[in-house]
Design a protein that fits this description.
- By secondary structure, this protein is α/β, with parallel strands linked by helices.
- It has a single domain, classed as Rossmann fold, CATH 3.40.50.
- It is built from seven helices and six strands; from the N terminus they run E-H-E-H-E-H-H-H-E-H-H-E-E.
- Helix 2 links the parallel strand 2 and strand 3.
- The longest helix is centred in the first third of the chain and has 16 residues.
């Protein structure tokens, strides 16, 4: 019997604002690079994955600069030359009228309760252009694709393991645990929001996906 184990590492890109900047909601329509701390977070990500024997066999990101840079720096830190595949399904959501607005202005428009519902239950506030069902189906489709990678492995191979890294954004990452079919249970144990530079780890084994850990923050060096 062939034993197949797939680990899916979901990373949120690093910081895109300096300490003196006013952070805004960056969505699909805003493409800016990482700042110094963001690059340090990407380096820490690569170091963490290498130290924990999670070197990726396949790497994906969105079409946005901040995710590609995070992936590139992490791979460089690992000494890996894996190709990075950019998929639009991992692009951040469109924040509509709140795109590039400060959090104070966003809360003034939609209220703090709407933000809490977004961060706790992934309920999209009015005016944001995001379809949760579509995002969830994208994750499910992707998870089926990567869990079938070894379908043609010969019978004489007993243990197979693969690590897949996806670098995406906060609005997309929070829906990934739906692939387990137990999102409500997940949300009771973890904050669904990933911090910048943080990762979540899911594992596919015995025909099931499960969340191993979430919002792990690799230690960054002083910058």
């Amino acid at each position: 019997m062939v034993s197949i184990l797939t680990k899916l590492i979901i990373a949120r890109h690093g910081n895109t604002f300096n300490p003196d900047d006013t952070p805004t909601r960056l969505g699909a329509r805003t493409d800016i690079p990482l700042v110094s701390k963001g690059r340090a977070q990407a380096t820490a990500l690569g170091h963490y994955l290498k130290e924990h024997d999670l070197m990726p066999d396949a790497v994906y990101c969105s079409s946005l600069m901040r995710t590609r840079q995070t992936a590139e720096i992490a791979l460089q830190e690992m000494g890996s030359r894996e190709h990075i595949y950019a998929l639009d399904i991992f692009n951040e959501i469109d924040y509509g009228i709140d795109e590039n607005q400060s959090e104070d202005k966003v809360i003034e428009r939609i209220g703090s309760e709407a933000i809490k519902n977004w961060d706790k239950n992934a309920i999209v506030p009015d005016g944001w252009k995001a379809n949760p069902d579509e995002i969830i189906q994208n994750w499910i489709g992707f998870s089926k694709q990567i869990s079938k990678t070894h379908d043609e492995i010969t019978n004489n191979v007993m243990d197979i393991s693969e690590v897949v890294l996806v670098v995406t954004s906060n609005g997309i990452a929070r829906f990934a645990p739906h692939i387990t079919g137990k999102f409500e249970e997940f949300a009771q144990h973890y904050p669904i929001k990933l911090s910048t530079g943080a990762i979540g780890i899911l594992e596919f084994n015995q025909e099931k996906w499960r969340v191993i850990d979430w919002n792990i923050k690799p230690t960054i060096k002083n910058i």
